[in-house]
Design a protein that fits this description.
Blueprint: E1 2-9, H1 15-20, E2 25-32, E3 42-51, E4 54-61, H2 68-79, E5 84-87, H3 90-105, E6 116-118, H4 119-124, H5 127-130, H6 137-143, H7 156-166, H8 170-190, H9 195-200, E7 204-215, E8 221-243, E9 246-260, E10 262-269, E11 276-279, E12 284-287, E13 300-301, E14 308-318, E15 336-339, H10 342-345, H11 348-364, E16 374-375
Parallel strand pairs: 2-5, 5-6
Antiparallel strand pairs: 1-4, 2-3, 3-4, 7-8, 8-9, 8-16, 10-14, 11-12, 11-13, 14-15
Helix pairs in contact: 7-8
């Protein structure tokens, strides 16, 4: 077995890197001769840890498949010194693969006792926000502006390793080392992608709120509510996305959420229609106890669809009843609206709760239309 070690200066000032990649955390990545846990082997494990202002990279390389157990044992010996495990797609591949190989080789494994952070899974939760074609490590690196010299994929290196086993050369050894080295070298640099998630987790403050007018594509005048948000964690690259009546764009430490307003007459539907009469002439419902003086031919028992009162105002959309009272066009409509009032404009806590609601909708539901979320600069 060959052990490679390298220590390089590293800037840990990024707030996400500082928050997650502490001195008790370790990144690791494995290289295998195939995807089958029974019919292939681990030939290289690379690790990255931090020491003050340096990044420490260690790699354990099996010169022959017979050294697989030695490589895994060396990795576990290093792992014992750390509390948290950071991976890229490790929950799906690296960790269960190593556990299966330990079982096959009769090795004691300690992976189960560590908490994991899988950057692939965390980044994939942002699929409608980042607008990436896929969430491979190199795709995220490209999005973040990370350039790497390695030109091979893990799958392509299987052939290189098989040829190395038959005829070891320094050139093949260097190719195998470099791919794994750059994987773990750039894993910490992927952490800033999680800053996007911080916004959706409510790590922001509403800096300002204003109503504005704009001209729609058909030339008609429209109104919108314009939230300017101060993000606790800056994002590394600007993005924009939309969902229904909402458009979100953010870059650096600031985000802007624009919400289309509705200037219309909407209905507020009462509960317990059996307690109400519907008045066709007035097109509204009133309590039976207050309608005894109204002639019988001018009233009828209210139904769920006719048990309402109406109001003309400027309304704000919502997808759950975050702000009440909630108005709708029809009783069956899932989306509701609330009146843009002075109480809402003067209540920062309510504004924060409403923005969190919209961000949650944008994050967790697939936007309508074939394009979904688009990165900044792409057509919406």
């Amino acid at each position: 077995m060959i052990t490679w070690t390298d220590t390089i200066p590293y800037n840990f000032t990024d707030p996400v890197i500082s928050r997650i990649f502490g001195r008790s955390a370790i990144f690791f990545d494995i290289e295998t001769t195939g995807f089958s846990r029974e019919g292939s082997t681990v030939y290289l494990i690379g690790c990255a840890t931090r020491d003050d202002d340096s990044l420490c990279i260690r790699q354990f390389f099996a010169e022959t498949p017979a050294q697989e157990a030695e490589v895994i044992a060396a990795f576990f010996a290093l792992l014992k010194q750390y509390d948290a495990v950071l991976t890229f797609n490790g929950n799906t591949f690296d960790i269960p693969y190593l556990q299966a190989r330990c079982h096959f080789l009769h090795l004691e494994e300690s992976l189960s006792s560590h908490p994991y952070t899988d950057l692939y899974r965390e980044a994939a939760k942002l699929r409608h926000i980042l607008g990436l074609a896929n969430f491979k490590q190199k795709s995220i690196e490209t999005f973040l502006g990370i350039d790497r010299a390695d030109l091979f994929s893990g799958g392509e290196l299987i052939r290189v390793y098989r040829e190395y086993i038959k005829k070891p050369t320094k050139q093949a050894e260097k190719i195998l080392q470099q791919h794994n080295y750059e994987d773990v070298l750039y894993m910490p640099a992927l952490l800033p992608v999680l800053s996007y998630r911080a916004l959706f987790d409510g790590e922001f403050s509403v800096k300002s709120l204003e109503a504005a007018e704009y001209t729609a594509m058909d030339g008609s005048p429209k109104k919108e509510l314009y939230f300017t948000l101060s993000c606790r964690l800056p994002v590394p690259a600007p993005v924009s996305c939309r969902y229904g009546d909402c458009y979100l764009s953010f870059g650096g430490s600031q985000a802007v959420l624009r919400v289309c307003l509705l200037d219309d007459t909407l209905r507020f539907f009462f509960d317990r229609p059996s307690d109400y009469y519907y008045l066709p002439d007035e097109d509204c419902a009133v309590l039976k106890t207050a309608a005894s003086h109204i002639e019988k031919d001018r009233r009828r028992p209210a139904k769920r669809s006719s048990c309402y009162t109406k109001k003309h105002a400027i309304f704000v959309p919502q997808y759950q009843e975050v702000v009440t009272p909630a108005f709708r066009r029809t009783v069956r409509e899932r989306q509701s609206f609330f009146e843009l009032s002075t109480s809402f404009v003067s209540d920062p806590d309510l504004q924060h709760r409403y923005v969190c609601h919209l961000l949650n909708v944008i994050l967790r539901q697939k936007p309508p239309g074939p394009g979904g979320a688009k990165p900044s600069g792409s057509p919406a």
